[in-house]
Amino acid sequence: MTVLTNLKYYYLNLGTQGRGEPSRLLLHDANVSFEDNRLEFPEWMALKSELSKEYPAAALPLLKTGDGEYYGLSGPLMRFLSHELGYDAAGKKETHFIDQIADLSSDWLQDCIRLFFQPDQRDFHNKVFKPNHLGRMESMYGYHADGPYALVSDTSKNITTATATTTIDYKENPNLSKFVQAFEDRKNLKEYIAAFPKDEQPIVIPLE
Asked: Model pTM?
């Protein structure tokens, strides 16, 4: 097991948006200290050039451990941290169920990130893509009646979902709403989530 000390975490300076927040939430939930480096794009380009020999993936999000090892990319990093911090699901069937939720969350997040480059598609996204993603998550989080988590015990993939469910219809999605409320009330997350900007504007990245 890797000793998670003297951690340095790297992602672009996108606030709570993008693929960097799930790992932050997991580390905060586990009460693990880390240096949070929120990079501007030129800073990342310089760091990426330096990393290419040590870390061939050279992609964000990225975690550097105290022993100089690098772990990165959103899905693999979440799975690595889940294992190291004891958030793994209990068995193969449960792991498969949670991995499905992780993939659905990634699909949703990718549609949200696409809006960084195509902000004119936001109305279409809200009318077509968002209800579809919400419906799939509502079904997954209602499969185990005990709730509010996807499984009877909570796991890290719940955290990936939480980052995508910011404005949901509580009447039409009661299972997902229960999960979001329970997640935001977690002891080690309440203060961190409460500090999220209340008026965070959507990221827009010009294509030209």
From this structure: 0.85
